[in-house]
Automatic annotation (TrEMBL):
Name this polypeptide is given: Deazaflavin-dependent nitroreductase
Family the UniProt entry places it in: Belongs to the F420H(2)-dependent quinone reductase family.
Species: Mycolicibacterium fallax (Mycobacterium fallax)
Molecular functions (GO terms): coenzyme F420 binding; oxidoreductase activity
Catalytic reaction annotation: oxidized coenzyme F420-(gamma-L-Glu)(n) + a quinol + H(+) = reduced coenzyme F420-(gamma-L-Glu)(n) + a quinone
InterPro entries: F420H2_quin_Rdtase (IPR004378), Split_barrel_FMN-bd (IPR012349)
Length: 146
């Protein structure tokens, strides 16, 4: 995984654009730092702009549920997509080579989040490090069928 502090905003946007293009060209597979990582593309509507937004995110299937994490690679603020889904939890997701599908996201309350995040951190040392890098509680969202 990648440390967001290594990128300027423009570099991060370019990095994401390249990963999105690779994802869409290769049936959901992305190499480099995401080789072997389960990724999805999250389609949201900008909370302020109302414009469509697309975000490549790692996801975790745990006990029959799918989760995404608002880590921002350990930054002290949530990533922009978190504000988007809080404003409009109705999203679309792309997983693998499948066409975008309607979905809904639900922020986990702490009592649910903590054991789920513990499992995510067990599976991915990067996410454990992201939590260690910030004082904020990194939010976890369940991705549900619409």
């Amino acid at each position: 995984m990648t440390n967001a502090s290594d990128f300027s905003s423009a570099q991060e946007q370019d990095f994401n654009r390249r990963n999105i293009a690779e994802f869409q060209a290769n049936g959901g597979k992305v190499g480099g730092p995401f080789d072997g990582v389960d990724l999805l593309l999250l389609h949201t509507v900008g909370a302020k702009s109302g414009q469509p937004r697309l975000h490549p995110l790692a996801y975790f299937d745990i006990d029959g549920a799918r989760y995404i994490v608002g880590s921002a690679a350990g930054r002290d603020a949530d990533p922009a997509w978190v504000a988007n889904v809080r404003a409009n939890p109705e999203v679309r997701i792309e997983v693998g080579g499948a066409a975008p599908a309607a979905a809904r996201v639900r922020k986990l309350p702490d009592a649910e989040r903590n054991p789920v995040f513990a499992e995510i951190a067990r599976r991915s040392s990067a996410f454990a490090a992201y939590q260690d890098a910030t004082d904020r509680v990194i939010p976890v969202f369940e991705v549900l069928p619409a």
